[in-house]
């Protein structure tokens, strides 16, 4: 019921009608101007009023304002449309951060680290020695295999350096064959037959 009375009084004030406005919360702007609201707190939707030196109340003109307490607000025709409390937010954030820090420090004190899963210095040295031995063996095997492959490659390259054997075909028809049968006439007939 009080809120509806406040809204009705705000409307009367805006219209220039006489209304008794009961101001509850007060603040001072950064420039020293006194302002007040008919609400219990500075909240969005509440009406903001300027209080003159003689006590007269007028709606706060449209604009953005900041109070000396660090409250920033946007006002349209006396009504607060947006409000932010920087210091309050920063204080709440710093309190939250302090609380988190306290929780972390208390947790770190209670936590015991199980070192059984970690290797000791001696175990690391032993493992590195074993690894070194295995790697040395692998490297010597690779070197021996490399030498073997090198020798095989050299033998193959020597084989390919030998001149290839040329195959020469002979044409029997172009080659003259002489027959010596003992009969000169028969030798002559056989030679003629081969040449044709």
Describe this structure in words.
It is a single chain. The protein has 196 residues and is an alpha+beta fold. The protein is built from four helices and seven strands. The protein has helices at residues 2-14, 86-110, 121-161, 184-195, and strands spanning 25-28, 34-37, 48-51, 57-59, 63-66, 71-76, 79-85. The strands form two sheets. It has a four-stranded antiparallel beta sheet with strand order 1-2-3-4, with no helix packed on it. It has a three-stranded antiparallel beta sheet with strand order 5-6-7. The longest helix has 41 residues, at 121-161. It is elongated and about 165 Å long.
- Low-confidence sequence ranges: none
Tally of helical runs? 4
Range of strand content: 15-25%
Tally of strands: 7
- The gyration radius over C-alpha positions equals 56 Å
The class by helix and strand makeup works out as alpha+beta
- Provide mean pLDDT, rounded: 76
Major β-sheet, in short? 4 strands, antiparallel
Note the overall shape: elongated
How far apart the termini lie comes to: 142 Å
**What is the N-to-C succession of helices and strands?**
HEEEEEEEHHH
Please list the strands of the largest sheet in the order they lie side by side: 1-2-3-4
Q: How helical, in percent, are the residues?
A: 40-55%
């Amino acid at each position: 019921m009080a809120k509806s009375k406040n809204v009705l009084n705000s409307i009367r004030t805006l219209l220039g009608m006489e209304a008794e406005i009961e101001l509850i919360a007060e603040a001072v702007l950064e420039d020293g101007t006194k302002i007040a609201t008919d609400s219990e707190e500075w909240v969005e939707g509440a009406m903001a009023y300027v209080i003159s030196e003689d006590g007269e109340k007028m709606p706060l003109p449209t604009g953005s304002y900041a109070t000396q307490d660090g409250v920033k607000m946007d006002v349209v025709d006396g009504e607060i449309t947006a409000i932010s409390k920087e210091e309050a937010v920063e204080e709440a954030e710093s309190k939250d951060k302090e609380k988190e820090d306290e929780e972390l420090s208390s947790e770190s004190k209670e936590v015991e680290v199980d070192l059984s899963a970690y290797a000791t210095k001696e175990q690391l040295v032993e493992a590195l020695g074993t690894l070194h031995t295995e790697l040395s063996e692998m490297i010597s095997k690779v070197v021996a295999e490399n030498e073997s492959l090198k020798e095989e490659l050299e033998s193959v390259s020597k084989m390919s350096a030998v001149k290839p054997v040329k195959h020469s075909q002979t044409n029997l028809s172009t080659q003259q064959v002489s027959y010596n049968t003992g009969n000169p006439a028969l030798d002559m007939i056989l030679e003629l037959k081969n040449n044709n």
